[in-house]
Amino acid sequence: MKMKKIMKKEKVAVIGLGYVGLPLAVQASLKGYEVYGLDNDKQKIKKIKKNQSPIQEKFLIKNIHQAKIKATCRSSVLKKADIILICVPTPVDKNFYPDLKPVRKAVETITHHLNSKNKPLIVIESTINPGVSEEVVEPIFREAGYKVGRDYELSHCPERINPGDSRWNVTNINRVVGSFTKRGLQKTLNFYKDIIDAEIYPMKSIREAEAVKIIENSFRDINIAFVNELAKSFDKLNIDIVDVIQGASTKPFAFMPHWPSCGVGGHCIPVDPYYLIERAKQAGFNHKFLKTAREINNSMPEYTVELMQNSLNEIKKPLNGTKIGILGLSYKANVDDLRETPAFKIIDLLKKQKAKVLTFDPYFPQLSDVKNLKELLRKSEAILLVTDHKEFKSIEAKDFQRYKIKVIIDGKNCLNKEEIKRKKIIYKGIGH
Length: 432
Fold this sequence. Notes:
Strand order of the largest sheet: 3-2-1-4-5-6-7-8
Radius of gyration: 24 Å
Low-confidence stretches: 1-6
Strand content: 5-15%
Number of domains: 2
Order of helices and strands: EHEHHEEHEHEEHEHHHHHEHEHEHHEHE
CATH architecture of the largest domain: 3-Layer(aba) Sandwich
């Protein structure tokens, strides 16, 4: 009986082993690809080599020990790759201007090691504004003497991740892809269909693929800004925004609930709209709506600190000298992710008013001012909840009372408002 010949799968190199790149590298390895992981963080590389996840993410913790990732800081491994995935950050600077330096550097690194005999497929997973592949990335290759379609293929598959989500991860989220050529598009479709058990949707152009991610997160930013503004308004009108949103959610069509909070964090929502704002500005268009949404969401940390000040005023205490405990540093519940977290802005604002700030986050003990939650409660006069970690949501009103907490500002509207008020503790949520 003849044995079927097993086709050797292609070699994949992943540049950037963070929240996007590492799950992709693990998944590609589990699907039988020979995977190289490239990152300049030596400590991260050491952990991955020991089959340990440097990121507290369920999919990684469960699967990284089964993956065979050749993690390294040496870019020369790119010479071996048939497929190269660019998964580097695309942040904004202090003036909210898009910073494409990580993408540029990754592309320049590839040009130094590109094996044109293999005609490698290069896929940008990093979030970029429409036009970057054509106006920034392709010219770098061209200047290095490489022609798209002849020496390499260039595609874009915007990342889709949701840190901390137990249902949706790199294995099952639908993706979109766009490319410069039909051959490149087909190669990209084949690769992602092979590693992901979800729909892989082809876009007509690489520019359209770039626009998809920007639209997704701008949509969320706008809707969050809407409810944040409503929260401020309803606070004046003595209407509970949470109750109203829950009521509106009973409509089975044409309404999608979004929730107010003390600030918008994460790498996508507070960043991606700026990429579109700036690119459209270069083309002569002014995104007034997106700008307004960003202004509203950026104002929420200041609004939250105002709530604290106003609440302390009720008991005739100033911010100056008051011991305020901060619950959470992460931008999102139950993850160790500080990207664009509103916590640091809130802390800075409180310190400018000379409040005595203490912080605690179970996911960041090294950044916390106290060892545990009990110590934070014991040393605080007022509490400001920034992150709705499960450890904080389970705090009972009697616990706040036991530690003589006088004021609670609930930045995520996740605590038991009625029970806290029954204990004669001043409670303020965001419109709640």
